[in-house]
Amino acid sequence: MWENLEIGLEKVSQEQLKEKPAQDSLGFGLHFTDHMFLMKWDRQSGWHDAKISPYHKFKLDPAAMVFHYGQAIFEGLKAYKGKDGQIYLFRPEDNIERMNASALRMCMPRLPVAKVLKALKALVYLDRDWIPTAEGATLYIRPTMIAVEPALGVRAAGQYYFYIIMCPVGAYYPEGFSPTKIYVTDKYVRAVIGGVGDVKTGGNYAASIMAAEEAHQAGYTQVLWLDACKRKFVEEVGTSNIFFMINDELVTPSLDGSILPGITRDSVIQLARKWGVKVLERPIAIDEVVAASIDGSLTEAFSTGTAAVISPVGELCYQDTKYVINRGRTGEFSQRIFNELQAIQSGQQEDPFKWITRVG
Ligand SMILES: *Cc1c(COP(=O)(O)O)cnc(C)c1O
To answer: For ligand 1, is residue 100 a contact (CB within 6 Å)?
Structure first.
């Protein structure tokens, strides 16, 4: 039935077109474009009613299972408008495939990858005037799947919505790249091996808010999570993956089941290897990071994710001691990889890995 899934189109009327927000005050995730994509799934029909339509509200039953048992998964990717006026998506198939990995773990239906990509491109093209053109500004895309069957009882739902919404976002670093201060928590944990830390499901983020709030209150931007069992090994920073440059080797925690396999993480690894930098994916004890900071072999740290691409870390606080990295400044490698990725994403640089897909 997937093969026959036609994508319907209902465009907004001229009067319904929303007023676009000012480019210099976009913020993140606040303004949504004119259209959205929605398709529905149930056990009898599989995916059906695939349609691009004006951005609208859902009417859901209060018993919809997502509200109670949290079967909800999402993705995040970006569309870029290049200097040449072309529109680019960065590794969109990887996002759809990762969503399918999330769906599998959460007992939700698999997405038809080619169809979703087609819908995604059509939606981006239709709302192309929403893609900001200022340096570093992009269109953020949020594919989401939720359980909508109205029924109580813990089991896999029999009805789902898959939808895509989009919002223009400003440059993450309007005043230039600035390193963050990170609080290493050994009080809270994010995920355990065997749990759902390696998939993008809503509950992971709900569970992380308290740690983030306490870190903010203490003057830190984000939390660095340690492994849940020993509270000894580094996992992630907030909702980003983490890298350290130690003795000129780039090290990042291996994907052992509790870490989200970031697409930016993978891109950094591939680019660094192409440049001849040694990259190691292995367990990293926080004690090793602290020791490397003290003896000077830790020269850079940065986190990676779609929203910020690269976020340099200027300070870590662990067990009441502060460790300043690279005198609190952005490292050379962090800057170089940020520039390169941004240039590839916006079509300004050769794309040796075939990461970008043109829209239109
Ligand atoms: C989304 C996410 C990342 C980063 O993944 P990207 O594909 O690089 O955006 C890292 N960690 C967590 C927990 C995430 O949710």
So the answer is: no
